[in-house]
Design goal:
By secondary structure, this protein is mainly β. The protein has a five-stranded mixed β-sheet, with no helix packed on it. The protein has one domain. It is globular, with a radius of gyration of 13 Å. It has no helices and eight strands.
Length: 83
């Protein structure tokens, strides 16, 4: 299981279209954005967040900032080596 934890402002992690992740992204005063319609977005005066599951949810992605922006981008699928 892969786990990403990102605590830096201005983060833009990307995952392949078929990624299997549990996602929790939040920012106290920065913006949060996602290229994945499957994820739920919530906005309150002191907290903005995106959360949900992509695919089977076997990996984990957590990103949080106080004032930085976070964008979860859709990356290219990983190329597999021929056997």
């Amino acid at each position: 299981m892969a786990t990403w934890t990102i605590d830096e402002p201005g983060s833009s992690p990307s995952t392949p279209s078929g990624g299997d992740l549990q996602v929790q992204v939040q920012s106290t005063s920065g913006q949060v954005a996602s290229a994945f319609d499957e994820l739920h977005r919530e906005g309150q005066p002191a907290l903005r967040s995106i959360h949900g599951r992509l695919g089977a949810g076997t990996g984990r992605l957590r990103a949080s900032t106080t004032s930085g922006h976070v964008a979860l981008l859709r990356g290219e699928p990983e190329a597999r080596e021929p056997r």
